[in-house]
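Input chain follows. Return structure tokens only.
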Amino acid sequence: MAAVREILLNKDSWVASIGPRASTLEAAIAMNRHKVGSLMVLDGERIVGILTERDLLQRVLAEQRDAAKTSVEDVMTTEILCCQPHTTIEEARAVMKNRRVRHLPVVDDRGLHGLISIGDLNAYEAHSQEATIHVMTEYIHGRA
């Protein structure tokens, strides 16, 4: 069974992050600059939360808060769902589906290894299916 570590092998290990005392305006600018839908909130090396587009929409825009004056720590999600490098892709997909999240930090006792998104899982699955189709086509046509 394929594991999350296989997705991380094909991704840049850098994870977009921000500090808890930064403004949500700074966070939105960083998300746009890096073209990401979430930022890990780090206090030094320690993960203290995750800030997502949904957090900004629900807790800043919908509440008509001033993004320049609202800190990340005031609106971030603190209940962070994580997975480990050995977590199967099926398990990660089930967590995302059942808990309605689109991003999972990948951590173990050595710290943060990366972040996977539902888009990463979909791309991995599509690539895997394309490879299977290719092998089956070769087999059917006797080229294996």
